[in-house]
Amino acid sequence: MVRLFGFGNQTLNALLRSCRTIKEALQIHAQIVVNGRHADLFVLSGVISFFALSGTRNGLHHSRVLFSQIHFPDVFIWNAMIRGYSLSDTPEDAIFLYKSMLAEGVQSPNEFTFPFLLKSCVRLSRLQTGRQVHCHITKNGFESDIYIVNALLHLYCAFRDMKNACYVFEKSLVRDCVSYNTMISGYVQAGLAFSSLQFFKKMLELHIWLDEYTVVALLSACSSLIDPIAGKQIHCLAYIILGSVSSNILLMNALVDMYAKCGCLKMAERVLSTMGTNKSITALTSVVSAYAQCGEVEVARRIFDQIDEKEKDVVSWTAMISSYSRVGHFLEALELFVQLEGLGIKPDVVAVVAAISACARLGALELGRRIHQKYAENWPFCQHGDFTSAAVDMYAKCGDIDTAMDIFRKTPDHLKTTVLYNSTISGLAHHGLGETAITIFKEMGLLGFRPNEVTFVAILSACGHNGLVEDGKKLFESMLTVYNINPAMEHYGCMVDLLGRAGCLNEAYDIVKNMPFKANSVIWRALLGACKTHGDVELAKTAGEELLAMEPDHGARYVMLSNMLADTDQHEEATRVRKTIDDAGIQKPPGWSYVELNGTLHKFLAGDRSHLEAKATKLMLRDMYMGLKSTGYVFSASKMVFDMD
DNA sequence: CTAGGGTTAG
């Protein structure tokens, strides 16, 4: 038995720090208690911080129990708890603890408290809370602590808010290599890779020290610019400023990733091979996704399969899952997800979101529901904005708008995000609930959420599908005047569609002629559709010809135009277009339909009889058709042909 | 007296 009487406090802390397992630490802790040393706050703080930072849920829980028994913890102990939770899967507890500390009114936060809090805000995707913490930092006079400045920069960069990041950067009296690194990667993440290189220039001019993180950030700038030449230069720079490169895993991963993302797969694999037997799962995952992005899913899968099962982690599985989704192989994606669950690997939020959105794309409502419900019970998932919005999107796309709205309504305001509003509004739009969409849009503004480009596509199309012409026009105008968003091609497209559907063909055509872009095929198609509905043959010809010129090998366009001509009794013209199709040997790629029943997916093609129950299905359809007819419904085949994609 | 910031892959 160890006797701890003779040990000094610092020795006890050192002893704890040397523990490799929770069990060892528990033994030391027991001895501390047996020897009556636990009343000493300093000793106790060592114990609490060890368990809080152990990285395990049990350890954190143990420290929480000890913590709750202290009447007045000192600021070090508060910080240890806050830090522990900021790294845990429930970072919101860190914020909760901070509030408790303030409420207790005994201890004030110090310069160590805030970086942990800011980290929690980032992990929770809660910019609003982060701003409040920023206010507390100012109030407590910690604006010039370099650690806090860097944590603030990280906060704003993580939310792509480069305006506030710059503000903090410019205003700060202290800046170091970390500040510059954070800004460089912030610019890249915000999609402003070019600015990041300018920042790097500034860094060089001011002779700021460069380190491996600088190189990593610069490499990601090159990936984002798809500039392998610049990437190679940075690769050289790495040798100059760092000396040894191949022993630096972080750097090797970034290098492989850069070459992979730039499409230089040979180079990526060459760098990878220099890692010999130490190939990291990170670098391998980069190569897997790169192949998938180049359209070589099979190659990606082969590499993925060659990776040692024990090496594979959630990220590499998710990479393969998303690769399948990217090329539309949703069934394979979901198969992998189920396999991953079966192997006992715990999917994280990103993995589950990937699976749920694959269900959304497939229309696999019941599988989607199963996955959603299973993970909704794990509450770190519910805290995550991406999880909620993916679920809303899935239910809406699978036709269950009630559940989608239910989830939206049950989400507390502080967990709502712009993305959640976007999924909700576009879900409502697809279900023809334009009025509700507008209500939600207004609520969004009242709660202080800024609509973005995506929001406007959703809300404008909601107006379009519901004939809300005036609302649509007002919202479109407000984009620039109120929200300072430049309407993009898609927004003009929504307006053309909206006006066209409402029969304002001239107004729609005016938009096409006057907008700052050359109309794309989507816009011409919308206009052509409107001409068809409202019988404007002249404009239809213009739109149709434009469409043909734009997508000469897109068979569906020919079919549309020919159907339209036939429909307006211009049979000669129609035959001419048909002939063009045959002459060019153009074929419309078949459009598969999927229906999910009792957890099984059924695949169909038009006119397809391969399905086991094709005959029964046909009979059922005939019954339904007869039923419809008896109620006086008139079936129009021409409308069907027109709306085909 | 103990401690904090930037990290690549989905």
TrEMBL record:
Belongs to the PPR family. PCMP-E subfamily. One of its GO terms (biological process) is mRNA modification. Gene3D superfamilies: Tetratricopeptide repeat domain. InterPro entries: E_motif, PPR_At4g14850-like_plant, PPR_rpt, TPR-like_helical_dom_sf. PPR repeats lie at residues 74-108, 176-210, 313-347, 417-451. The keyword Disulfide bond does not apply. GO terms for molecular function: RNA binding. This is Pentatricopeptide repeat-containing protein. Keywords: Repeat. One of its GO terms (cellular component) is cytoplasm.
